[in-house]
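Next comes one such specimen:
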Amino acid sequence: MAIAIWDKALDIARQTPEARHRGVDFLRAASIIVVVIGHWCMAAPWVDEKGAHIAHMLGQAEWTQWLTWGLQVMPIFFFVGGYSNGISWSAALRDDKPWSEWLASRLGRLLAPALPLILFWIVAGFLAIQLGVPIPMVRVASQIALVPTWFLAVYVLAILLVPLAYQAWSRFGLVSIWVPVGLAVIMDYAYFGLGLKGLGWTNFLFVWFSVHQLGFAWLHKRAAVGAGAWFWCLGGLALLVLMTELGPWPRSMVGVPGSEVSNTTPPHLPILALAAFQFGFVRLIEIRLSTWLKKEGTWAGTVLINGMIMTTFLWHSTVMMLLYGIAVYFGGLGLHAYPGTGTWWLMKAGWIIAFTIVLIPVVGVTSRWERIARTGPPVAGVRQVMGSLFLASGLALLAFHGVVNKDSGQLLYIPLLLPFLGALIAGIIGIRIKGGGR
């Protein structure tokens, strides 16, 4: 089976056009893998004579917050996404491809893999409640498992805005990046300087829209060209140091449980500085990366991983929480070391190996949702937008609250049903899985 999968990846790799920017595909896969490893490393459950506890290494050991400067790679995913969306949308314009058809092709593979994950947690949450598992434990476990879906909720908005964003890029060039950056600065001032924290949440749009626009600049070679890449890389790093050392922003590039301010919820200016640093770095290594990816085995591996990368991203935390739950059930097997100790880090390496072993077959079964083929024409674009917004809203609510109401102890029915309602409206449900019938 494994040999057949590899042979198929090799066959696809050999058919890749020379003009394809292989580095973009590699960075998409690599950024998600880094996020997966980061989540696995930072979760810090342990068991002692008082029972089971769960913590986060960023809160347990302050030095680990520096690691987030390398582990927070969502900016890379967003400007890589901008590059890919720019290519596909410009091709759609050139070929007079309807917007609804283009949108369906982008949304289907992105959102369909989330549906079986949510269905799993509906069943798991219901059974856990019936079996008497403490509600706080169910809520925390499901919230940790579904945190990755916040990214989908935001990225869906970026895709819906691509036609307008690309038009803005075509007309205004780099100004289309700096305007939302300026708005993000104003929103951060409102957040920290005026105490208008509600306005800060608009930076989910302004910050990530700016980073997505960088992909258009990359595609058209309008930023970080030649020696300018060093300016972006070192300038972004310098800004990041100044902001986190002298400003009101925390050092960690992801949320730290218990901290009053997070750089990601809502996004703040250090994320833009990190994006500039990462963008410059990517541009510096771009040629060498492309050369390396011309090797058949390297490129085939990239093709193979990319074919299931969204499923890997969505399920990795669920696998982690399930294995930790099993360990707690059996008396804390492998969880008796206190987080941050040398023994704990050694055991963490073993846990990461265990997560990987279990994740592989899970992805093998569920990744079929990434290979979807429609049985008819896509639904109207307006329906796709409405359905996507419903779906994204459900994902965002689940990422923040998990699947259980902390007060009533019942499932959060509306957030759990919104993704399926949205998928139905957008035409994502009612598709045929390749090799799987209707």
